[in-house]
Specification:
Layout lengths: L1 E8 L3 E4 H5 L6 H8 L3 E4 L5 H16 L8 E5 L10 H9 L5 E4 L5 H14 L5 E8 L10 H4 L5 E8 L5 E11 L3 E4 L15 E5 L1 H22 L9 E4 L4 H11 L10 H4 L6 H11 L8 E8 L1 E10 L1
Parallel strand pairs: 4-5, 4-6, 11-12
Antiparallel strand pairs: 1-7, 2-3, 6-7, 8-13, 9-10, 12-13
Helix pairs in contact: 3-4, 7-8
The structure holds coenzyme A.
């Protein structure tokens, strides 16, 4: 598998920490010190599906392939306004593709799950070109009267086109350790004449400290595993593209690997945590501004609700 195109799309509205502090009991100092986040982009008039299609079109354009040569579209999305059809079906129409499509929900590690699926489809020969779109609007899961989660998230979309290529994926490892209580969002379903049910709706519930601990231990474990399997040492890696959740989580992983800070690029200070889109948006920015070059060794690592996590060593 080889990445031949990337794209991203962000909402126009920038929301600063001070803007949040005008209606929540928080401050720019607290958010900056505990998370590293300064601003985030939040959806106002855009739709997530349009943003996903916009990112996809940019990735297809960079790849140089004909849209009709896309053999599969995989969308990574936790939730959006449409429960069905899948977001990938709608993106297909907007980009003008003609291929099977499906969505997956791998929470904030969704991009890595999608890469793993794509790698498998390419290896079996079932597909030559696959479009992966990660589009997320976590701002719509939060309770906007609570300060614990709203400060963390931003909305955005990122996309990649992958094709069959020499062994660019050196190792990939995904994990799930079921533990939903630490991070979950329950949305409303319709009542039926037979189930007048108990109210199961809950905006995002998070035990921040627990998630922090699980994130650091899962990421360091996954990275060590992948590094070992690919016979790499930490200094071989050009960039560690880590899930953009919290600067202190990234710093803990960096300390474990004992590598210089320049190898750990971030954009969370501008965009917050955009769930599965975060790593793709970062990768797209770095490819477009020339920081990531062909031949660079990338270590991707992400974690999220589930509790899911994964890492992937790949040559760009
Ligand atoms: N503004 C000001 N104070 C806040 C606050 C906010 N937005 N949120 C919490 N606090 C308060 C708490 O009430 C607590 O006060 P207390 O000491 O009087 O009880 C204090 O700040 C410390 O809270 P704590 O939860 O221990 O802070 P923390 O250092 O763990 O930081 C997170 C909180 C959420 C930033 C951090 O735990 C984190 O990032 N966890 C991972 C979350 C994540 O990445 N989720 C997505 C995964 S995909």
């Amino acid at each position: 598998m080889k990445i031949i195109g990337t794209g991203s799309s962000l909402p126009a509205k920038t929301v600063t920490n001070d803007m949040l502090a005008s209606f929540l009991d928080t401050s720019d100092e607290w958010i900056t010190e505990r998370t590293g986040i300064k601003t985030r982009r939040l959806i106002t008039t855009e739709t997530l599906i349009d943003m996903g299609a916009d990112a996809a079109k940019k990735a297809i354009n960079m790849s140089g392939i004909d849209v009709k040569d896309i053999d599969y579209i995989i969308c990574s999305n936790v939730a959006n306004n449409f429960v069905t059809p899948a977001m990938s079906c709608m993106v297909e129409g907007l980009v003008g593709a003609d291929c099977p499509c499906f969505d997956l929900n791998g929470a904030c590690a969704g991009f890595l799950f999608a890469l793993d699926m794509a790698d498998g489809l390419l290896k079996t020969g079932r597909a030559h070109n696959i479009l992966i779109v990660c589009a997320e609007e976590p701002s719509k899961f939060c309770n906007w009267e609570a300060r614990d989660t709203t400060i963390l998230f931003g909305d955005g979309a990122g996309a990649v086109v992958v094709t069959r290529g020499d062994d660019h994926v050196l190792s990939i490892k995904m994990s799930t350790k079921s533990k939903y209580e630490s991070l979950y969002y329950q949305r409303k379903m319709e009542l039926t004449p037979y189930d007048q049910g108990t109210e199961l709706y809950n905006p995002l519930v998070m035990d921040g400290r627990d998630v922090f601990r699980m994130a650091v231990s899962a990421s360091t474990r996954d990275i060590d595993y992948v590094m070992n399997e690919a016979n790499l040492s930490p200094s071989d890696i050009t960039y560690y593209l880590l899930h953009q959740a919290n600067l202190r989580i990234i710093e803990s992983i960096r300390k474990h690997l004992d590598q210089p800070i320049e190898k750990f690029p971030t954009n969370l200070e501008r965009y917050g945590n955009t769930s599965s889109a975060s790593m793709v948006i970062l990768m797209d920015e770095m490819i477009r501004d020339g920081r990531i070059k062909r031949g660079d060794l990338l270590m991707l690592s992400a974690f999220g609700a589930g509790f899911v996590s994964g890492a992937c060593a790949m040559r760009y």
